[in-house]
Amino acid sequence: MPASNVNRARTAAARACVCRYAQFDRRATAVRGARVERVAVAGETGAAVQRRAGGAIGAGVEAVAGRGDHASAAVAGACATAVDSAPGAWHVAAMVHTIRRAAPRDLPFVAWVQQEAARSHLPFGFWDLAFPGPDTYRLRLMERIASLEPASFTHWSRFLVAEVDGEPAAALSAYDDAQAASGESFFRAVVEAMTAEGWNAERLGAMQQRLAPFLACMAEQPDDTWIIEWVATRPSHRGRGLTRALLRAILDAGRARGHTRFQVSVLIGNEPAQRAYEGAGFTVCGERRDPTFEATLGSPGMRWLRRGA
Hints:
Oligomer: single chain
CATH topology of the largest domain: Aminopeptidase
Number of strands: 10
CATH architecture of the largest domain: 3-Layer(aba) Sandwich
Strand content: 25-35%
Distance between the termini: 72 Å
Largest sheet: 8 strands, mixed
Number of domains: 2
Strand order of the largest sheet: 3-4-5-6-7-8-10-9
Helix content: 40-55%
Number of helices: 10
């Protein structure tokens, strides 16, 4: 065979080899990056979800269940994470999450969620201003406030909790009686809790002074709106879709109560949180800025986002 023909044959063979490798690589990438959503029952094991998903290597599996009402919202999910532990070998570890209503036993976690959500992307937030001191002291006070009736917007009963392997990993809350929940009921709960702690009128007055900058930037909260509040995830479980699942569940809970308008707020400057809410269909509809707020907290103010049903 002439040399030119040999070269052409070798080139064609090389191209065919590259083409086959590229097709294989695309298939492998598609399998590794696949995201499968299926309906499951709460409590299904990760292995069971993996089997029902067809054993796709590296697939991210989210299983959703529940009737959507606040009283019985239950969302079960699994995230199968592929780990390349050896050349050509893939092992799948499944993570199951279940969304349920909070219970009194969740009070320590609910207090932590509120502290974390209030701090947002900053070193300290609303609760740090209210109760200066170590976290252990502050969280104990917050637990007391979250346990008192009438239920304020911090009350444990307003929360949904995402569990992973039976442990709380993320949570959020919602309410629709905004004027009472974040006004009168909250004030009564704080006064009762602090009085039980031995606070006098002078200490309560000093706390109100510390919180004045924050109150200057509070978002508008119409009573006919389902207000989503206190959204936080443990650092070890972030980036795994728990917030998205919780948002879906809490929106369903609001719809079950007849709501068609939903609202959530962020501190200005918390761009990741704002993008997450915009990805869930929310759009910015207002903000409040205050120089004292910025000097105290390090953020220009508050921004709120809304969406329809």
